[in-house]
Amino acid sequence: MEVTKNKKYGGHILALPYPSQGHINPMLQFCKRLVSKGLKTTLAITNFISNSTHPNPGIVGIDTVSDGFDKGGYADADSVAAYLERFEQIGSKSLADLIKKYEKSEFPITCIMYDAFVPWALDVAKKHGLIGACFFTQACAVNCIYYYVHHGKLTLPISSTPVKISGLPELELRDMPSFFYVHGTYPAYFEMVLNQFINVDKADYVFVNSFYKLEAEVADTMSKISPLSTIGPTLPSFYMDNRVENDTEYGLNLFHVDSSTCINWLNTKPEGSVVYAAFGSMSTFDDKQMEEIAEGLKATNSYFLWVVKTSQESKIPKKFIEENSEKGLVINWSPQLQVLSNKAIGCFFSHGGWNSTVEALVFGVPMVVMPQWTDQTTNAKFVQDVWSVGVRVKVNENGIVGREEIEECVRIVLQGEEGKEMKKNALKWKDLAKEAVQEGGTSDKNVEEFVSKCIRKFDGQ
Ligand SMILES: O=c1ccn([C@@H]2O[C@H](COP(=O)(O)OP(=O)(O)O[C@H]3O[C@H](CO)[C@@H](O)[C@H](O)[C@H]3O)[C@@H](O)[C@H]2O)c(=O)[nH]1
Fold it and tell me: Which ipTM did the prediction report?
């Protein structure tokens, strides 16, 4: 769709992501897609993130809001609960100020698109008479489970398994989001994920960062309850359909990335020979688990590229890096899309974060999943038993994933017959993922429909 000729744009969307890597990436990408179809978008990042990064958002505008922690960000809050409370309090006001700032400009805001983690943004949108579009960053399956709990259709604690929910496979306790059975951990996050549904019925649009064929049954279940649009995968267009110009990477890294070292290293390795181990932006492991990961990777006798964030580096066993430099490279943050698209990668050893999971599918890379918390446990269930593109590690009686388990799972994926089947399945999902965003695909149609409604509304039709 072209922007209407007599207008410069078809409305201005102010997008408010939850301020973390796994939430900024898909929302920024979705904004780029909307701009390519004729809308103007501005991504509102927190002052802290703005001051501590070098955003490169391309065709998307960038502006800032305050979460109440401008100097140190989330790390300055006493607790998760304190952070979320202050973000709502200060963020609501700050978002309203931002809307006002644009009122007299050439491009007044017409729509607030907000992460489902910050449902209070819808109240701000409505107070200003704006369209409210809710963006769910996580999988439809996970949203559906939370929806059931929020509405009392599934009561906690779960008393009998398997749990049967229409559109989902039978779920054991360990397949449920971790908040349901790892008690006492992160109560504020638990409340937040359930609160995604407090006002979603008042949102004008609901977007889900997934694609229809990946979660068709559960998407259908959720659509019966409330209209939703799957719009993903939201990876840069370069890897999907190449229709958005210059969209080759996520435009905002919260961590420093040194691309050339690891890509040059990967380029020297044979096709499908490298295990890429990376556990997203939030995972932390204790010393013992780090040792098991290190020894497990070593025991596979395969090449490995391991991302260990600076904050976790001291937990790498002493001399491990020097002693394994022939086989392995350890870095602090990777250009993950460039890595996963490199033909040397044969297996992604991951925590099962939603973005990493979808990225693996888009690049047809089979996975070993070691879920840590939140939605990762449910994603792991789908990876292993629904999409058949990987294996989930088993945790031992001490709550650790041992080196032998890691070695065995990697060998299954990288070397075994089962692994070949997983690779085949992963390649099938790769094609379907691309099909969804290409012209006429399910996600493309949903985006087109939204854009044309926005433009019609903007034109007063
Ligand atoms: O070295 C790295 C590691 C990761 N990434 C990128 O960072 C993002 C990570 O996102 P995700 O895989 O979803 O993991 P988290 O950062 O851990 O995301 C949090 O947020 C997600 C969305 O709510 C949840 O699915 C996860 O469970 C939760 O931990 C992805 O786009 C990766 O490509 C890099 O660029 N370089």
Answer: 1.00
